[in-house]
Amino acid sequence: MFDLGRTFMQSVERSPHALALVDGDIAFTYAQWFDEIARVGAGLEALGLTRGDRLLVALQNRWEMATLHWACQFTGIVIVPLNWRIKPEELNYSVTDAGARAIVYEGVSAQAVAQSAAAQDIARIGLDEVAGATHAFDVLRACAPAQLATEASADDYSVMLYTSGTTGMGKGVPRRHRHERAAALAHVAQNLYRHGERTLGVMPLYHTMGVRSLLAMALVDGLFVCVRRWNAQLALDSIEAHALTCLYLVPTLYHDLLAAPGFSSARTRSVTKLGFAGAPMNDGLLKRCSVAFEPELFVNHYGSSEVYTFSIDQDATKKPGSAGRAGLNTRLRVVKLDAASPGQLASRGEEGQIIVELLGDEAFEGYWNRPDANTKSLRDGWYFTGDTGYLDADGDLYVTGRVDDMIISGGENISPVDIESVLSLHPAVDEVAVAGVKDERWGQKVVAFVKRSHYVDERALDEFCRTSDLVNFKRPREYVFVDQIPKSPVGKILRRKLSSGEYELER
C-alpha cells in the first residue's frame, strides 16, 4: 500500500495546476503547495527531527497546520495535533506522554506553552512572532530542499490523535499510514466524492473528522478551504466564494449555519453532498438541512479516532436516527451492556454496547502507553466502543448514547437520544439535550435542557411528548430552559455538565 507522501504526490503529478488549498488571501495549487511542504519538511529535518519522532502542533485550521501535516507524512515524523485551546497541565502531559521532540504553536496557544514546564525542554517553533519560541516557522520555510522523497512506509505511524478525556487526560491513538489511507479512501467512496470536490476545512485538524477531510481532498485532487475558527457567517461566505461542493460537519455546525444571518439556499447551491458525524442529528435538524440544501447525498457517518468508520448511512433522512450498516472496512456487532466478550450478542431491538472488529483496515492497534485502556476496550480482537445502540429488524444500527450517559431511572435504562429527537420537532425548541439528574426516589430523573427559539413552557412540552410515540417512562420529569447547551470544542453535548449543574439558565 502507498504511504501518504506518495498519495500526495499522485495529486501533484495528476493535477499540478489545480487549486489545492485556500486560507483567506493565500491560495496554493498542488505544485505550489508541494513546494511549501518540501521546504517545511526540510526545515523540520534541519532542526534534528527524524523518522519516528513526534511533533506536537497546537494550531488552528490555518495553511501552516495543513502543510505541517503533509510535511510529516513525507519525512516520517509523527504529527501529534493538539487542541489549540489546550491547558498547561494537558500540554505537560502530552509532551511527556508522546515523548515529543518539538512543538509548533501560535498566539492562541502561547500561554499554555509558556506555562508548561515540559514544553520548555523541547524545541518551540512559533508562528506570527509569538513570544517564547526557540525557532520561527518562517525559518523552516527558508530551507531549500533537494527533490523531496518520501521517507515513510505504509507501516510507519502517521499521526497520533488524543481522545478527549472526560475524567482525566486523553488517550493517545497512534495510527499508521495504511490506517489513515484506508480511512481516507473509505471516506471518498462512502461520500461518493468525485474528482475535484471542494470542501470546508473547518473541523479541527486535531480531530479525526478534520484529518479525514484534509486527506480525502488530496485523494481526489480537490480543494481544502481553511476556516481557522468556527464562524457561521465566514463559513457561509466561504461556501459561496469558492463554490464548495461538499460539507462534512458535526450537527451543531449545521445548526449554526442554518441560523447564520443571510443564509439562503441560493448562496449554498453549489453544495451537493452533506455528511455529518460526531453525534446523532435529531429529526428536526435533519429535516431543516434537507429542505435548505436539497442535497444529492446526505450521509450519516458513525465512527471514532480509534476506528474511523463504524457504520454509514447514505440516505440519512430515509430512517432518521439510523447510522446505517457497517462501513467498507468494518464489521460491527451489538453485545449486551454487561458483555465481557464479543460473543454475547444482544437481540434485535435490544439496547447494548456497540463493538467493532480490530482486523478492519481502518482500525488502530492499541492506545499509546495505556495498557489499562487496552484491557478495558480491546477484547478478543474487538474494540468495545463504550457507545450504546441497537439493531432494528432490518439490521440497521441506531446509536443511542454512551454507556456512561445511560439514565437509570426507577430501574429502567433510558437513553437520551430518542427523547431529544422527539423534542427537537417542537417548533419552539432551538436545541435540546437530555441528561439524568440525581433523584432520591428514582435514583435519576430524566431532565430535558432546552434552548428556546421562542416562548414555550414546560406544560406544553410535556403535552407534546405525551402525544408522541415516546413511551411514558422516558418522558422528561423536568424541563430546564438554558442560555446554551454545553458542548465540547467539536460540538459534542457535554451531558455530565448538565447533570452536575454546570449551565446558565435562560436570561
What's the SSE blueprint?
Blueprint: H1 4-14, E1 19-23, E2 26-29, H2 30-46, E3 54-58, H3 63-75, E4 78-81, H4 88-98, E5 102-105, H5 110-114, E6 123-126, E7 135-136, H6 137-141, E8 157-162, E9 172-176, H7 177-190, E10 198-201, H8 208-219, E11 223-226, H9 232-241, E12 246-249, H10 251-259, E13 273-276, H11 283-293, E14 297-302, E15 311-313, E16 322-326, E17 332-335, E18 352-357, H12 371-377, E19 378-379, E20 382-391, E21 397-402, E22 407-409, E23 412-414, H13 416-424, E24 429-439, E25 443-452, H14 458-466, E26 478-481, H15 495-499
Parallel strand pairs: 1-11, 3-4, 3-5, 5-6, 6-7, 10-11, 12-13, 13-14, 25-26
Antiparallel strand pairs: 1-2, 8-9, 14-15, 15-16, 16-21, 17-18, 18-20, 19-20, 20-21, 22-23, 24-25
Explain the overall architecture.
With 507 residues, this protein is an alpha/beta fold. The protein has a domain at 406-499: GMP Synthetase, Chain A, domain 3 (2-Layer Sandwich), CATH 3.30.300. It is built from 15 helices and 26 strands. Strands 12, 13, 14, 15, 16, 17, 18, 19, 20 and 21 form a 10-stranded mixed beta sheet that branches. It has a 5-stranded parallel beta sheet with strand order 4-3-5-6-7, sandwiched between helices. Strands 2-1-11-10 form a 4-stranded mixed beta sheet, sandwiched between helices. Helix 1 packs across helix 3, helix 7 packs across helix 8 and helix 10 packs across helix 11 (283-293). The termini are far apart.
